[in-house]
Write a structure and sequence with these properties.
By secondary structure, the chain is of the alpha+beta class. It has helices at residues 3-16, 24-30, 35-46, 50-68, 73-79, 85-96, 100-106, 156-164, 167-176, 238-254; strands spanning 130-135, 138-148, 184-190, 200-209, 218-222, 225-233, 257-259, 264-268, 279-288. Strands 1, 2, 3, 4, 5, 6, 7, 8 and 9 form a nine-stranded antiparallel β-sheet that branches. It starts with a helix and ends with a strand.
Length: 289
């Protein structure tokens, strides 16, 4: 099994089909994974969603055709999947900063996005600490809010959620915590297929419990399943975000598991995020391939 080779096969297939409707199922099959796993892994490897990559590649090829050929704007719009010349022109200007007609007449330098190719880079044999945990069904009770995905740095919306917790909230939720992971935790559910910056998430801060409800707190029911639990120790949030990336770029491609449906969980050992040895655990639901 060679995960990077398989992903590059999928990229070759994608590149050959940029003038047609993209079959995401076929891309996933070539990468030897499920469609959701393909989208998620691609996002962590490339730093953008598959849809965003396709958009940038199509507009890059269109820019080259404008400067080297005589294709009409409408023909290029249809060729690269836009419903009208106006829609194509708006998308083109958003990426290149000029209209298609200006790009043709001025021969100016445009932002051409090259095709991707994934390669293995060794940065020292850094082990990952992971264990597999079997858990029966349970509930997460606590605060709930729709937030946006942030890949780097502190997520201000989530930080605001933590700041809104009152001493009474913290006490009640800690008392309700009666199953692992113990104490206050975060739970996140992706609300879209894309994993680009700003994509919507449903975020919970609360406690894992066998109780069905707790007063007027939001409740998230979690089905029985297996969980891969990854340890993160180091400066927050950089170390934690690095571990998130390695889970999808290194662990999942080589492990006999794929991500199952359900929320990802985050447990922090304490509140002092300034500690250079800040310890967290990332819980991801998994199933055997």
């Amino acid at each position: 099994m060679n995960p990077l080779r398989d992903f590059n096969k999928a990229l070759d297939f994608l590149e050959e089909g940029l003038e047609h409707e993209i079959d995401y199922g076929q891309l996933a099959a070539l990468a030897l994974c499920g469609e959701q796993d393909f989208r998620r892994t691609f996002s962590y490897l490339a730093g953008m969603s598959v849809a965003e990559y396709i958009r940038l590649r199509r507009l890059s090829l269109a820019a080259l055709e404008l400067q080297t050929g005589s294709s009409r704007v409408l023909d290029l719009a249809i060729k690269y999947g836009y419903g009208s010349a106006d829609a194509f022109s708006r998308a083109f200007q958003a990426v290149h900063g000029v209209s298609p007609s200006q790009a043709r007449s001025s021969k100016m330098a445009l932002k051409v996005f090259p095709r991707l190719s994934f390669r293995l880079t060794l940065k020292g044999a850094t082990p990952m600490k992971v264990r597999i945990v079997e858990k029966p069904s349970f509930q997460i009770v606590g605060l709930k809010k729709k937030v946006s995905l942030v890949h780097q740095g502190v997520n201000p919306e989530i930080a605001e959620m933590w700041e809104s917790l009152t001493p009474e909230d913290i006490s009640r939720l800690k008392e309700a915590s009666d199953v692992e992971p113990q104490g206050l935790i975060s739970a996140t559910i992706h609300l879209s297929d894309g994993y680009e910056e700003g994509s919507p998430l449903e975020h919970y801060i609360g406690a894992a419990t066998a109780k069905k409800s707790l007063g007027d707190y939001a409740v998230l029911s979690v089905k029985a399943c297996s969980w891969s639990v990854f340890e993160s120790v180091g400066p927050f949030p950089d170390t934690l975000q690095e571990i998130w990336g390695r889970i999808y770029s290194e662990w999942f491609p080589s492990a006999p598991f794929e991500q199952a449906s359900g929320p990802s969980l985050l447990w922090n050992e304490h509140k002092d995020t300034s500690s250079p040895t800040f310890r967290s655990e990332i819980w991801i639901p998994v199933r055997a391939r």
